[in-house]
């Protein structure tokens, strides 16, 4: 049976997503979420979940300290403290996404690009934020404390002659008179 939301309607007051969905006979994101919310109401009454978002960390001290930092070491200290503070929350989100991917064994034999594989990718990506930020922080410290050695030696290879002639090929005898044998 076709959902009544798919009945033909005029496009007045509809967004582009709704118009395209009606043309193709598919559901919009909002349709899917609305239908799932309606169908999950009995479940959620038995398993109440918080309505408010997870608490957001107060970044003011980190931003103030970063603004006051004058050296790469000081900026790194702030960044590392923030990464340490954020890690438990990001790990918890990653753990949930992994559990959602493995829900009822749906991940076993799942094709690449399928919902379980996408959830598993999201779980890994949520933690890669920490790794990428740590990598950037360490690169900044390396630039400050352990820069690549400056090369004082001339570049390898022969120098161009001031006469405008191309350099001699490696192994060619030097220009000028060759010593007799």
SSE layout:
Blueprint: H1 16-24, H2 29-46, H3 60-68, H4 72-101, H5 115-145
Helix pairs in contact: 4-5
Which properties best describe this structure?
181 residues; mainly alpha; 5 helices; elongated; disordered C terminus
Task: Describe the structure concisely for a colleague.
The protein has 181 residues and is an all-alpha fold. It has helices at residues 16-24, 29-46, 60-68, 72-101, 115-145.
Please provide a written account of the structure.
The protein has helices spanning 16-24, 29-46, 60-68, 72-101, 115-145. With 181 residues, it is mostly helical. Helix 4 runs antiparallel to helix 5 (115-145). The longest helix has 31 residues, at 115-145. The chain is elongated and about 70 Å long. The chain starts with 15 loop residues before the first helix and ends in a 36-residue tail after the last helix.
């Amino acid at each position: 049976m076709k959902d009544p939301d798919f009945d033909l309607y005029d496009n007045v007051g509809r967004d582009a997503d709704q118009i395209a969905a009606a043309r193709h006979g598919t559901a919009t994101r909002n349709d899917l979420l609305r239908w799932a919310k309606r169908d999950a109401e009995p479940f959620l009454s038995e398993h109440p979940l918080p309505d408010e978002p997870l608490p957001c960390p107060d970044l003011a001290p980190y931003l103030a300290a970063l603004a006051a930092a004058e050296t790469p070491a000081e900026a790194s200290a702030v960044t590392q403290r923030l990464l340490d503070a954020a890690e438990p929350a990001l790990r918890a989100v990653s753990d949930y996404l992994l559990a959602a991917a493995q829900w009822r064994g749906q991940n076993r034999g799942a094709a690449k690009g399928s919902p379980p594989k996408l959830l598993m990718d999201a779980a890994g990506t949520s933690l890669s934020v920490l790794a990428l930020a740590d990598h950037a922080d360490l690169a900044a410290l390396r630039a400050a404390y352990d820069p690549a050695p400056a090369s004082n030696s001339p570049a390898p290879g022969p120098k161009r002659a001031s006469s405008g002639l191309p350099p001699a090929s490696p192994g060619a005898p030097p220009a000028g008179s060759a010593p007799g044998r």
